Structures are given as structure tokens and as C-alpha cells.
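Hi P.,

Sorry for the delay on this. The queue was packed all week, but I finally got your sequence through. Input first:
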Amino acid sequence: MRLFIACNLSQAQKHELETIQHKMTNYLPGVRWVKPQGLHLTLSFLGDTDEKSIVPLHKVLEKVAVTANPFQLMLGGCGVFPSFSKARVLWIGIREGEEALQRIKKELDYCLEGLGFVTEKRYYKPHLTLGRMRYPLEEELIRRSLDEFGAFSSSTTEISKLVLYESRLTAHGAYYYPLVEAELKKIFE
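Then the structure:
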């Protein structure tokens, strides 16, 4: 099973991002846009994982969830990875909620390492993948698009749970299936 842990967006945020995708299509030809139902905020990609790990992973989610308060998430700004000249991924950043995501990610990585998972060692910069370039685009096209849409801000939603997903790759793209979730429960600092 190909697994990852993520936070969900509100339907309003997904609609706002879909609107941005449609507008950006005029600027950025050849981008494969992430479908609205596939938009989520990944905290940890676990990769190919044995089905027997689901119960221990659920326990990890619950353990992390009791250490975190629900928090407000607002998306905004945009950029590309790895660089303007070699852009392959178009992303939307976080305007509100980044500190909470950083704390949850740190606790999550600690617990996942306890289960034997290898976690990313590079700095975690929360973002949402909006689209992937099928082929390299002119740097000027990318810069103009980011100038045009860089001021974007989404509505705000409350993040109140962590979700373990299975990702299934098909000829029509990836589909994500929630397996287990844990409610954020901490009620004080």
C-alpha cells in the first residue's frame, strides 16, 4: 500500500484553488493540474507500506493528535520547485497555520521514526502541489504567472484532524482513499 499522512482542505478552499488553476491555464500551457478532490496538505509521505502498519500508524496519529490544538489554515502565495529555470512543480503556500503544521510535523516525524520509518531530513516547508509541468516552460511565463497570482489568499478553514491515506495510481491519475483519522484534541497550551 502506498500511504501518506495529510490534512484536508475545505470544499470552499478546493473550489478557490480550482478557480486559480483555470485562470493560470492561460499563462502556463502544458501543466497537469491536480484534481480538486486530490488537493490536500501532505505532512508525511510513507511510500510503499505493509498493510499490517495501519494499526500502528493509527496509534501514531492519535498520539500526535492529542498534542495539537485544532488550528486555522489559510492558503496563499505561490511558487515553483526546484527553480524558475527548471520548474517542475507549481505550489500554493500557507498564509496562516504554518507554525501549527511545523509543530505537528515535528511530533509526527519523531513518532514515525519510532516505528522504523525514514523521515525527510530537509526543512519542511508546508505547501500544496497545484500542478506539475509536463515539460520545461519559459522562465518568463512562470514569472508572469506568479506575479499575477502571487497575492492569492484562500478562505480560512479549521484543521481538526490528521488523516492516513492510501494513494492508488491509475492510468487516469492518482486516487486517494482515507484509511484512518485522528481528531486534534489538545485544549490548552
